[in-house]
Amino acid sequence: MDTKEAVFWSSYSAVATPTIQEEIFVQRSAPSRAWFANSESAKLPKITKKQWLMIGLVYLGNFCAAMSFSLQAPFFPKKATEKGATPTEYGLIFSSFYFTIFLIAPVYGKLVALVRPNLMLNGGFSLTCVCVVLFGFLNLVPGGKMFVALAFVIRILEGLGAAAYITASSTIVMSEFPGRIGTVL
């Protein structure tokens, strides 16, 4: 390397920053693999009781959220048909939840850096829980367009909450266990 260049090492590569009118060189660094050679440095710290509790609560929340989304499927089509909704309408109501997650999760991914993940986790889970309860009260709404519209609104809000919860829980787990992401997730 040229002596005029400043070398910055990262865990993956060495990037040579050239002076004016020189080319940029990116070289693969050998030190990034050095930790594999030393078995002592490859050992990860033990998981504490607090971390086990956090893993349990996050995944219990994920399980309850997934359960609340899927338990509606056997019951809602019959009730929606009784209220005058067509199969296309209640199919769109179900898919609006997942479509909302698909659209908003990248936005929450950027937002999680600005908002504390714990706040996003609690807010998303709370919104999801409220929407699940409201969805249970849809049988009290008169049939027709009002039923379909409220079901759409509730499922979209539920999707917003679920996207926040899923994004925040993944962020919290990844930040708490940087060396064990594949194992913990």
From TrEMBL:
This is Major facilitator superfamily (MFS) profile domain-containing protein. Keywords: Membrane, Transmembrane, Transmembrane helix, Transport. Gene3D superfamilies: MFS general substrate transporter like domains. The lineage of its organism: Eukaryota, Metazoa, Ecdysozoa, Arthropoda, Chelicerata. One of its GO terms (cellular component) is membrane. Signal peptide: none annotated. One of its GO terms (molecular function) is transmembrane transporter activity. Pfam families: MFS_1. It is a multi-pass membrane protein.
